[in-house]
Automatic annotation (TrEMBL):
GO terms for molecular function: fatty-acyl-CoA binding; flavin adenine dinucleotide binding; glutaryl-CoA dehydrogenase activity. GO terms for biological process: fatty acid beta-oxidation using acyl-CoA dehydrogenase; fatty-acyl-CoA biosynthetic process. It catalyses: glutaryl-CoA + oxidized [electron-transfer flavoprotein] + 2 H(+) = (2E)-butenoyl-CoA + reduced [electron-transfer flavoprotein] + CO2. Residues 24-134 form the Acyl-CoA dehydrogenase/oxidase N-terminal domain. InterPro entries: Acyl-CoA_DH_CS, Acyl-CoA_Oxase/DH_mid-dom, Acyl-CoA_Oxase/DH_mid-dom_sf, AcylCo_DH-like_C, AcylCo_DH/oxidase_C, AcylCoA_DH/ox_N, AcylCoA_DH/ox_N_sf, AcylCoA_DH/oxidase_NM_dom_sf. SUPFAM superfamilies: Acyl-CoA dehydrogenase C-terminal domain-like, Acyl-CoA dehydrogenase NM domain-like. This is glutaryl-CoA dehydrogenase (ETF). It is an enzyme of class 1 (oxidoreductase). The keyword Kinase does not apply. Keywords: FAD, Flavoprotein, Oxidoreductase, Transit peptide. Residues 138-248 form the Acyl-CoA oxidase/dehydrogenase middle domain. Residues 267-407 form the Acyl-CoA dehydrogenase/oxidase C-terminal domain. It comes from Nesterenkonia xinjiangensis. The keyword Transit peptide applies.
Length: 414
């Protein structure tokens, strides 16, 4: 039976004609980012990964594409829809997870923190330059001993006269060594927090009368120090860093005035998790397509690998999981655009799609045999990167408990 061929614009892995559900504008944004990835990332990513280099020279063009703060409105941001943002993240991560992470850290975390929780003056001061790629941001929440439990953070901020003084440390902070500004989350005495809240004076004490608050910290402030974490086996074409805060003194207006408590950083994490649900499918799709190309050319026992039943079973299983993940990501995007997205839905997308993407990339690697462990081919690089993506912005365990609470009504985090 002759194989049905995809249309000129539809990918062969699009088994359910998902593209037909996209508008012309959505397809246009997707294709512009895909062209950027083909031209600027694919030819070089193997070397960048091997040499552990983050290609900062790409940032200017990424800003021109409107990728920094893409889903935010005003202040020089592109103001695109959630679905358009998701499609862009899928294409970026088809190139490499580390490159997609740049956009996530800059836009979904650092810029979103200012956009969601900052004053009008803070937004005007920082967001236009960040959208233009003229200033790079980072987001300091995770600590050496407080990963999945940010409420246990040890970083503290205290008020001394007209200044805030920050002391503590953060770990696994993307872009910190090249950032111009850091959003640092710290615990503040509830009474001091109360006086800094914009609007209604409501606090959310986490323990011992303290509240988690966000601070805008220029990275040239005395006492701020960032160091690259080396010897990574994953996310090598990116930067993850340790931050040390030694009596960092900030003006009173450095605090983010809105949404005290953990709902502040969690609101930003939700934005990043949403992007991951899309991005992971980009890595998975790239691995599957690379394996399909290889199997069509690789001859074994007198015929191409793609002509064997066991190989076709692998491709079918991978394509089914890819299709389900892409449909899930699209549903998340439509719900987010409609204002009906619920927190547990993001956990469903992040947990499912990271799990599926890793398995797809690992299975795709087997198609290449021994050649699959070389940097010439993408699946194992994607699988290694996805080990980090699976961990950050909430581990499998955290998202399992979020979904479990939605199903049972019982919080089982402690």
């Amino acid at each position: 039976m002759p194989a049905e061929q995809p249309t000129p614009t539809r990918r062969r892995t699009d088994l359910m004609a998902i593209e037909s559900q996209l508008s012309a504008e959505e397809i246009g944004i997707r294709d512009r980012v895909a062209e950027f990835v083909d031209r600027r990332i694919r030819p070089h990513i193997a070397r960048w990964y091997e040499e552990a280099v983050l290609p900062t020279e790409l940032f200017g063009e990424m800003a021109e594409l409107g990728l920094f703060g893409m889903h935010l409105t005003g202040y020089g941001c592109a103001g695109r829809s959630a679905t358009e943002y998701g499609l862009a993240m899928q294409e970026l991560e088809a190139g490499d997870s580390g490159i997609r992470t740049v956009v996530s850290v800059q836009g979904s975390l650092a810029m979103s923190a200012i956009h969601k929780h900052g004053s009008e003056e803070q937004k005007q001061q920082w967001l236009p330059g960040m959208a233009a790629g003229e200033m790079i941001g980072c987001f300091g929440l995770t600590e050496p001993t407080a990963g999945s439990d940010p409420g246990a953070m040890a970083t503290r901020a205290r008020r001394e006269g007209d200044e805030w003084v920050l002391a503590g440390s953060k770990r696994w902070i993307g872009l910190a060594t090249i950032a111009d500004v850091a959003i640092i989350w710290a615990k503040v005495p509830a009474a001091e927090s109360e006086a800094a809240v914009e609007g209604e004076h409501r606090t959310s004490p986490d323990d011992a009368g303290e509240v988690v608050r966000g601070f805008i910290v220029p990275t040239d402030t005395p006492g701020f120090r960032a160091e690259v974490i080396g010897q990574k086996l994953s996310m090598r074409a990116s930067l993850q860093c340790d931050i040390t805060l030694e009596e960092v003194r900030l003006p009173a207006e450095a605090i983010l005035p809105k949404n005290p408590g953990l709902r502040g950083p969690f609101g930003c994490l939700s934005e990043a998790r949403y992007g991951i649900a899309w991005g992971a499918m980009g890595a998975a799709r790239d691995a599957l397509e690379a394996a399909l190309d290889y199997a069509a050319e690789r001859q074994q026992f007198g015929r191409p690998l793609s002509g064997y039943q066991l190989t076709q079973k692998k491709f079918t299983d991978m394509a089914l999981e890819l299709t389900k993940g892409q449909l899930l990501a699209l549903q998340l995007g439509r719900a987010k655009d409609a204002g009906t997205l619920e927190n547990h839905m993001i956990s469903v997308g992040k947990l499912n799609n990271c799990r599926a993407a890793i398995e797809i990339c690992r299975e795709a690697r087997t198609i290449f045999g021994g050649n699959g462990i070389t940097a010439e081919h993408s699946p194992l690089r994607h699988a290694n990167n996805l080990e980090s993506v699976r961990t950050y912005e909430g581990t499998d365990e955290v998202h399992t408990l979020i979904i479990g609470q939605r199903l049972t009504g019982e919080a089982a985090f402690r």
